[in-house]
């Protein structure tokens, strides 16, 4: 029988199928409209719980001090909801590129909240976990809730949607884009008119960050220029990753096989239900 220790918890990537920026609020945050889906391409986390009152993460993330690691911050936030000396050692198998616009850090944080809520027996509701997630970053709640969603406001108003299931080829340019830097930039386009979900569901999607990131990061521009020869292509989030959508896996793999050596990428399936929730259901079923 498998023990909680032997479970690998997925932290899936997300794509923003579109990212429309509608304006800037007085506090500097942006009003936006975006469509989130998950990919079956994940970081993997293993949780070894104990009573040490300590949070350890192995291995260290290069360039991210422990106190800034979103996994550590998520565990510390959750720990405040118990009076016990809760501890954990977390093994992280990092596969998602950092600063790639596919939400790796946010997803790691969400998986930590969901898994430790169960393993530490804290039993917060999904709404309470999403609220904790919001304190860590705008993208964390959608990973906590675990369903593809149309997001509005500053990203906090989420409406679950069913996106058609497609395959994606994601290219990972060799650069990190800082989300804060892009949102601060004076040349960012911020005036796409708001539309209803019914209008947006008809298509005509774009990413308002893409022109600026292409201009400032030649690696992103080069990757898009290559990919667009094969299929309509777009950037996710504030970059750096770019993606193209395909009906069938073999079509995406054929383009992957043509990729020149100066590019890196992967093929993944789009998911409406996060792989995290598939794992959580399996854990519940095992405990019944
Ligand atoms: C652009 C998206 O990636 C779309 O998925 C997200 O909305 C960004 O999510 P995230 O990385 O979790 O963002 P946060 O860590 O909350 O914010 C990073 C920085 O982005 C800017 N930011 C973020 C979200 C938003 N609606 N307006 C903003 O201006 C803020 O300057 C903030 O300092
Ligand atoms: N566990 C973590 N994994 C990745 N990055 C982390 C983590 N904890 C903190 N960070 C910090 O967060 C930054 C953004 O990481 P992330 O991989 O989430 O970027 P992203 O995919 O561009 O996110 P988003 O699309 O949400 O803006 C990293 O550069 C790093 O400094």
Automatic annotation (TrEMBL):
GO biological process, one term: terpenoid biosynthetic process
Limits of the GHMP kinase N-terminal domain: 69-146
Binding site for ATP: 97-107
Domain GHMP kinase C-terminal: from-to ranges: 196-260
Keywords per UniProt: ATP-binding, Isoprene biosynthesis, Kinase, Nucleotide-binding, Transferase
Catalytic activity: 4-CDP-2-C-methyl-D-erythritol + ATP = 4-CDP-2-C-methyl-D-erythritol 2-phosphate + ADP + H(+)
InterPro entries on file: GHMP_kinase_C_dom, GHMP_kinase_C_sf, GHMP_kinase_N_dom, IspE, Ribosomal_Su5_D2-typ_SF, Ribsml_uS5_D2-typ_fold_subgr
Entry EC number(s): 2.7.1.148
Domain of life: Bacteria
Pathway: Isoprenoid biosynthesis; isopentenyl diphosphate biosynthesis via DXP pathway; isopentenyl diphosphate from 1-deoxy-D-xylulose 5-phosphate: step 3/6
GO molecular function: 4-(cytidine 5'-diphospho)-2-C-methyl-D-erythritol kinase activity; ATP binding
Pfam families: GHMP_kinases_C, GHMP_kinases_N
Active site: 14, 139
Record-linked PANTHER family: 4-DIPHOSPHOCYTIDYL-2-C-METHYL-D-ERYTHRITOL KINASE, CHLOROPLASTIC (PTHR43527)
Biological role: Catalyzes the phosphorylation of the position 2 hydroxy group of 4-diphosphocytidyl-2C-methyl-D-erythritol.
Protein family: Belongs to the GHMP kinase family. IspE subfamily.
Protein name in the entry: 4-diphosphocytidyl-2-C-methyl-D-erythritol kinase
Species the sequence originates in: Tolumonas osonensis
Organism lineage string: Bacteria, Pseudomonadati, Pseudomonadota, Gammaproteobacteria, Aeromonadales
Gene for this chain: ispE
